[in-house]
Amino acid sequence: MIERQPARDRRLPILEIAPPAPSAGRTAAEPGDERLGEFRPEPRALPAFYVWTLGCQMNRSDSEEMSGRLLAAGATEAPTMEAADLVVINTCAIRELAEAKVIGRQGHLGRLKAANPSLRIVLTGCAVRERDREGLGRRYPAVDLFLRPDEEPELIDRLGLASAQGPVGAVGATTIVGRTVVGVADHLAATRSAAVAGGTVQRSSTVSAWLPIIYGCDKTCTYCIVPFSRGPERSRPFDEIVDEAQTLAAAGFREVTLLGQNVNSYGHDLPVESRFGHVRTARWAGRQLDLGSRPDLAELIRAIDGIRTADGAPAIPRLRFITSHPWDLSDRLIEALADCPSVCEALHLPVQSGDDDVLRRMGRQYTTEHYLERLAKIRAAVPGITISTDIIVGFCGETEAQFERTLRFLESVRYDQVFAAAYSERPGTPATHLPDDVQAAEKRRRLNALLALQEPIGLERNRAWLGRDVEVLVDTVARERSHDHDEPEAVGQEMAGEGSGPGGVRPGPGEVALSGRTRGNKLVHLAGPTDWLGRLVTVRVQHAGPYALRGKPRADGVAELHLGDLGRMASQPSVSDLGGRAPTGR
Ligand code: SF4
Questions:
Q1: Which residue lies with its CA nearest to atom 1 of ligand 1?
Q2: Which of 79, 119, 518, 548 could staple 523 via S-S, CB 3.0–4.6 A?
Q3: How much is the pLDDT for 159?
Q4: CA dist., res. 318 & res. 310, Å (int)
Q5: d(CA 328, CA 345)
Q6: Ligand 1 atom closest to residue 262's alpha carbon, by position in its atom list
Q7: Helix ranges (DSSP H) in 83-218
Q8: 171: confidence class by pLDDT, cuts 50, 70, 90
Q9: pLDDT per residue over 412-432, tens digit each?
Q10: Which 3 state secondary structure label does DSSP give 505?
């Protein structure tokens, strides 16, 4: 039962940013004495801030907004936490370890505050849940201000820092999920669009951009804290998302990732519009939700793919989306993946377990048969698509036989990549009512067994690319890497004399070790000049490990960098034109 609690006209409590430490003693001065300057009222000293971001892509996107607002208010970015007057910690609560990381730094933060009394610490993200607000001060004693994710746009106001954008006011809102008061993203779409329009999103890359499309989650996965930290789903208006995508294309971003805890259910909460009259979606193995005449993810993907350059190429060459829930993976979405040339051939589709009883206890609302049916349909529609997934081992009541079924499931599906973790109980989630009866040591044994089974599968999937040309979006000057540890001898010798740098590459004169990702989201190491950053480079794959590829760039394979390709774009179809079916044809 969802009850909406309107955002009360809350007087926002202001967190006093301590005025600058008083400067040294004073002596009487003559009118013209330049020391008079000391006595002029000093503008409020703006803090040097540091944002520590943990967790998922949505947190990274939220941190880009918070950094942008602080910069727009005149604050400066500090290179380290130790050099900051204001530390913003954007937390993750998906696993105990993530919260423990921040709790474990309270001592260090306390010492920093002792050394710098004007230091202020703000904690936000999924660890800040309304129902636990009372206990937060005890868990995080060094923190001065707690903001739920839906309250983040209030940061500047709450710090008493005037911004060129003017006060945002009280935008946090709450609602009831089950019997729990939770924050809800009723106003985040508006504050996001205002931030984009005001140019206050401090994007962490000039190559790839996050584009949030839906906040919160309506699902009922029993182990998950997200519905209690981010509230029910709130989709952003269709046109505002397409506008932001056009802005990103005009700015020359090569890759855009549509973000949401569950992007597949985008649009179901938006109003009916006649221009979406052609949208009819039948939900699979779940209750039928009438999505008629509302935009869905497929419609959004077609619209963004429809933003084209004069020569008809997608203005955003690479479009990705994360995270998908198998329950909402519609036929319309699969068709859009197949039809739209900009959509990358990579899908992250968390399965969590290969056993139906475990899935039922997890509240995932699908069966392995349903999941496999969707997977087969995607693989048929997009040949060569890479598939990655999430798996939780040691969930409540998971027997050895059920775990074995998960291992057999991985052997049959043969994922390109698996992100696996041992179950850790999250306070306030429905799973706390289930027995957490798999011992920690057994959870670790199962996790290691699963990773040991998946590693050769990952190697086999990557070896399929040996000798082939792949398009790599170069986005990193690679640091020393240690984990690329497949039979180094055999492959090493094969690449003898080649590999001593990060990823085993050997940069020549004027070159550095670079890395980037294929359209299939495979990590590729290569050597090349730094001005290849942000470019699409064709690489011949010469080495495959379980986690990464390495290769030689083809001399003729470096795509010119056309910042603002849009400049050469055909006259722009208006957003409403994009409301209908976008041009197809891969
Ligand atoms: S789909 Fe499930 S696991 Fe994912 S955010 Fe929603 S409740 Fe959590």
A1: 219
A2: 548
A3: 87
A4: 17
A5: 19
A6: 1
A7: 96-103, 106-115, 133-139, 155-158, 188-197
A8: confident
A9: 999 999 999 999 999 889 999
A10: coil
Kindly report, residue by residue over 501-559, the tens digit of the pLDDT. 667 888 999 999 999 999 999 999 999 999 999 999 999 999 999 999 999 998 777 77
Q: Ligand 1 pocket test: pick from 226, 329, 353 the residue with the most ligand atoms within 8 Å of its Cβ.
A: 226
pLDDT at 32: 57
Best of 217, 366, 395 for a ligand 1 pocket test (most atoms within 8 Å of beta carbon): 217
Distance 196 CA to ligand 1 centre (A): 27
10 has a pLDDT exceeding 80: no
Q: In angstroms, what is the span from residue 110 Cα to ligand 1's centroid?
A: 34
Q: In the block, which residue shows the tokens 């940013």? A: 17
Record the tokens describing residue 369, joined without a space: 């048969």
How many A from CA of 225 to the centre of ligand 1? Answer: 8
Q: What is the mean pLDDT of residues 270-274?
A: 94
Close Cβ partners of 187 (under 8 Å, ≥ 6 residues apart): 7, 150, 153, 171, 172, 173
Q: Is pLDDT above 50 for 355?
A: yes
User: H-type helices in 414-527, by residue range?
Assistant: 440-463, 488-494
Residue nearest (by alpha carbon) to ligand 1 atom 8: 224
CB 415 within 8 A of CB 454: yes
CB 359 within 8 A of CB 367: yes
Ligand 1 binding residues, C-beta < 6 A: 217, 219, 221, 224, 226-227, 261-262, 325
- Give the residue, by CA position, lying nearest to ligand 1 atom 2: 221
